[in-house]
Description:
By secondary structure, the protein is an alpha+beta fold. The chain contains three helices and ten strands, in the order E-E-H-E-E-E-E-H-E-H-E-E-E. The strands form two sheets. An eight-stranded mixed β-sheet has the order 1-2-4-3-7-8-9-10. A hairpin with a 5-residue loop joins strand 8 and strand 9 (147-152). The structure holds zinc ion. Keywords: Hydrolase, Metal-binding, Metalloprotease, Protease, Zinc.
Amino acid sequence: xxxxxxxxxxxxxxxxxxxxxxxxxxxxxxxxxxxxxxxxxxxxxxxxxxxxxxxxxxxxxxxxxxxxxxxxxxxxxxxxxxxxxxxxxxxxxxxxxxxxxxxxxxxxxxxxxxxxxxxxxxxxxxxxxxxxxxxxxxxxxxxxxxxxxxxxxxxxxxxxxx
Length: 162
Ligand SMILES: [Zn+2]
């Protein structure tokens, strides 16, 4: 069983993250069960920001984008392109009248227990520079265990362990 809700301590800019079951089902199809015989998958996390900024805020991940043919995908690396992902986000954003927004990034790892690489931390840092003061979710799908964290500016927040 994989988690689909996470709570954070009071020092975190976000109190909780929810992931809709349909999102987890999509991610499940891209887990690297074949380890290095499969390429990493990547996409963006989409959903709603609820509550007040910096206070009782929670994020509801309602959808994701899936790997697009312009993404560069290798067994232990990936480069997500904007093509496809951006168009999907724009469409949902428009349809929902702005309710559905960009919430962060996801990708898969050829590991049982997903752990971020130094490249992941570097890339997330770059991504966050484009969203000052806005907490983003970063999610890594492992084969048996996923990793998730929130990053706002320079700080990473990890969920409370259950
Ligand atoms: Zn990674």
